[in-house]
């Protein structure tokens, strides 16, 4: 049990990668605080994961909700050992068809929301604690139609390095998990989402999309003492997508 009695905050812990990570941390003995905006999925997560999970409704970019979240954590848990700044959104932003509000919303939730979460966490983090950010391979792949999302995740990856320099003297580690295509509700629940994901498999060397548990395993590694000398680093979890150029020939041995 790597996280026995540790206090773990997961933003966006009511769905997808955040929910899978919450499940893993609970199995490893942690007290887990999950946040999100949707009260139904927050309640469902508590029903599913049990009394070691505390769900608090909070939008990462709402000042008052964030203040109230961290006040509750301070009162109920005292301090935090792990923060997984995971909450994020993906919206199409094709050039020529995107309004300012949509572009700003993606940057606001995915970049500003991450920074403000970390900033609010700092008074509760002691030496030896660990922060994990959630990036994306879309920040480097050059995928069409998602400029805001790509820029936001490049921002997350850059921010982690700057924060690592800042937090190292305090003995706080910060690292980034960088997922490739992973089957979660961010892709929608419709058949078209399934079709979109399966159309991606040809460009993934392992020939399948990832699942949320596979990302959670890496988050837990980065959050745990198993990675005690890993600082300002990224672990890419994408089935090899970003290691090979698109369309690279694969020569099979006879
Ligand atoms: P998801 O199932 O849609 O989860 C997104 C989570 O973020 C939800 O719990 C959502 O909860 C929360 N959230 C969104 N906006 C929020 C806000 N303003 N305040 C608080 N919580 C908010 O999708 P996911 O794939 O697990 O995404 C998790 C992270 O992984 C994201 O940062 C995403 O960019 C990253 N990622 C995903 C993939 C992939 O292929 N799935 C690949 C690379 C990176 P509410 O809706 O209740 O607010």
TrEMBL record:
Database matches in SUPFAM superfamilies: NAD(P)-binding Rossmann-fold domains
InterPro entries, sorted: KR_dom (IPR057326), NAD(P)-bd_dom_sf (IPR036291), Sc_DH/Rdtase_CS (IPR020904), SDR_fam (IPR002347)
PROSITE patterns xrefs: ADH_SHORT
Signal peptide segment: none
Keyword Oxidoreductase: yes
All copies of domain Ketoreductase, residue ranges: 6-181
Keywords carried by this UniProt record: Oxidoreductase
Top-level taxon in the UniProt lineage: Bacteria
Keyword Oxidoreductase in annotation: yes
Family recorded in the similarity comment: Belongs to the short-chain dehydrogenases/reductases (SDR) family.
Protein name per the record: Short-chain dehydrogenase
Source organism (scientific name): Leptospira yasudae
């Amino acid at each position: 049990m790597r996280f026995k009695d540790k206090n773990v905050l997961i933003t966006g812990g009511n769905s997808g990668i955040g929910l899978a990570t919450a499940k893993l941390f609970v199995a490893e003995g942690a007290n887990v605080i999950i946040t999100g905006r949707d009260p139904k999925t927050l309640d469902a997560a508590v029903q599913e994961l049990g009394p070691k999970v505390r769900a608090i409704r909070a939008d990462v970019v709402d000042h008052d909700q964030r203040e109230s979240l961290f006040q509750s954590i301070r009162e109920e848990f005292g301090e935090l050992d792990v923060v997984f700044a995971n909450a994020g959104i993906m919206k199409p932003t094709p050039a020529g068809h995107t309004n300012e509000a949509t572009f700003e919303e993606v940057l606001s939730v995915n970049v500003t929301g991450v920074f403000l979460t970390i900033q609010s966490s700092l008074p509760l983090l002691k030496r030896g604690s660990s922060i994990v950010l959630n990036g994306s391979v879309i920040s480097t792949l050059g995928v069409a139609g998602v400029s805001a999302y790509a820029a936001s995740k490049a921002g997350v990856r850059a921010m982690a390095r700057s924060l690592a320099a800042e937090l190292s003297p305090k003995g706080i580690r910060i690292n980034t998990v960088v997922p490739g295509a992973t089957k979660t509700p961010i892709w929608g629940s419709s058949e078209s989402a399934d079709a979109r994901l399966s159309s991606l498999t040809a460009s993934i060397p392992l020939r399948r999309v990832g699942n949320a548990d596979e990302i959670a395993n890496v988050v837990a590694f980065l959050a745990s003492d198993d990675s005690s000398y890993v600082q300002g680093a990224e672990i890419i979890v994408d089935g090899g997508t970003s290691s090979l150029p698109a369309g690279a020939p694969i020569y099979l041995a006879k």
